Amino acid sequence: xxxxxxxxxxxxxxxxxxxxxxxxxVGNEQKExxxxxxxxxxxxxxxxxxxxxxxxxxxxxxxxxxxRRGSREAAAPQCAVLPLGDGTELKxxxxxxxxxxxxxxxxxxxxxxxxxLLQTIDASAIPGGEGSDSPxxxxxxxxxxxxxxxxxxxxTDIGFPAQGExxxxxxxxxxxxxxxxxxxxxxxxxxxxxxxEADTQARILLETQNTxxxxxVRRYRFEDGTLRQIAAGExxxxxxxxxxxxxxxxxxxxxxxxxxxxxxxxxxxxxxVCEIQIEFLPGMLPTAAANQAQEALDGLxxxxxxxxxxxxxxxxxxxxxxxxDARVEDIHYVSAGVQGTFRLTARYFAEAVEGYGTxxxxxxxxxxxxxxxxxxxxxxxxxxxxxxFFSGDWTAMEPYLYDPNGEISxxxxxxxxxxxxxxxxxxxxxxxxxxxxxxxTGAVSLTFREGEEDSYTYLSMDITKTDSGYQISFYGLxx
Length: 479
Prior knowledge:
Elements: H1 3-11, E1 18-26, E2 29-38, H2 48-74, E3 78-83, E4 89-96, E5 104-113, E6 116-121, E7 138-139, E8 146-148, E9 157-161, E10 171-178, E11 183-191, E12 196-199, E13 204-211, E14 214-223, E15 226-230, E16 241-242, E17 250-255, E18 258-263, E19 275-282, H3 286-297, E20 304-310, E21 313-320, E22 327-335, E23 340-349, H4 353-364, E24 368-369, H5 376-390, H6 394-397, E25 421-427, H7 432-439, E26 442-450, E27 457-466, E28 469-478
Antiparallel strand pairs: 1-2, 3-4, 4-5, 5-6, 5-7, 8-9, 9-10, 10-11, 12-13, 13-14, 14-15, 16-24, 17-18, 18-19, 19-23, 20-21, 21-22, 22-23, 25-26, 26-27, 27-28
C-alpha cells in the first residue's frame, strides 16, 4: 500500500477533509514528504483529535527518515588504510561533519591497529585547538589525508587540510608517528599537499608558496626531532664521501677549510706544503665552479693552466713558476649531484710531479661522493645535462639528449652567468621510473636560485630511457 493510502486509511472518517500533496525537495536535498491541507470549506467535519493525529503522522513521515539517515551517517565514518612502514598497517576512521566550502570537517580520527584502538585525534592535539568548537581538520574532495613519510624515519605520517576550502596556498596540519610511543603526535603546520615536497636525498622539506612575484620555496630540516627552517644561503650538510689512500704513508685530518690528506713524515721545510684538501661547494655545478676558479687564477700569478674533463669531473692543472720548487696544484671538481660539487686540491712542487703528483692523482681518482639519491643513475645524467646547459656547452649537453627528429636547437642553452646558479632540489626523481614505465616519459624539475634572488626558478625536463641510459627529450625554464 502506498504511503498516501496508509495515511488516508489512518485518518478514517476525516480523510475526505484533507488534500495530500507530495513535495520532492526540502532545502537542497530531494526528499519525499507528505503534507496535509484541509479541504475548504468543510471545517465542520474536522475535529481537534483528528488534527492532532494528522500532525503527528505528518511529522513522523518527515522526521523519521531524517533521523535514520543521520544515524547511518554517524555510524559510517570515512576510512583509510595505510602501511605504517614496519610491515604493519593502520586503519584511520575519520568522523566527519557536514561539508563546508568543498571540504568536510573532521571531528575525530580513530587510529586502529589489528582492530585495537590506539588513539583518537581531534582539534585538542593541535597547539591552540584546545577547547575550540570550530573545526581544525578537514578532508579534501578525495576524502583521504596526505599519507607519506615526512621526517625520514621510515614511518608513515599523516596530514589534513587546516581550512574548509581549497586555495592557492593551502595549509595542512601534519602528525608524525612516534615509534616509541606507538601513536601519532602533532608535528607541524605548513603549506601541504602538492605544495610540500619531501626531498629524501637531502632529507629536507621544500614548501612552495605562490605569490604575485612567482613561487617562493622555503626549505626545512629536522634537528633533534624539531623542524627548523633553513635560512636563505645556508648550506645543507655536506654529503659523505669515500677516498682510498695508504694509511701507512698518509693521514687524514679535519681542519679549517675542510678535510686534509698529507704525508705522515712531512716533506721538509724547504718546499711548499704537499697535501690534498677536500672542500664542499653547496649548490654549485662542477663546470661553473671550475670556470669561476679559472677566471680568478689570472690574478694569482699562475704561469700555466691546463684543463681536462672526464664524465663526472673537471680538472685544472695549475703551475706557479718554472723553477724546481714552484708550486703546483691539480684541482678536481667532482659532482655530488644536485647537492653541489666537491673540490679536491692536490698541492705539491714541480720536481715532485713524478712522485707526489702521480700519487695524489691516483688518490683523487678514487674519490666518490656518497650523496643519497632516489635514482643515482638518473640524477647523474640530469645534473650532467644541467651542468652543460647552464654553462652554455652544447657538446656537454648532447650525450644526454634524446632528439631523434632534430627538433632541439643548439641555441637552446642558458645565456646567464653559470656562477650565479645555486641548485636546491631535484623534484620527481622518486617516481621517474614508474612514470617512464607507464607513459614512456617522466617529468622532473631542477629547482635553483639565480644570484641573490629570493624566489626560485625551475629547469623542467621530460626524461626517457634508451639503450644509452636516461636522456632528456624536452627541457625549458619556468619561473
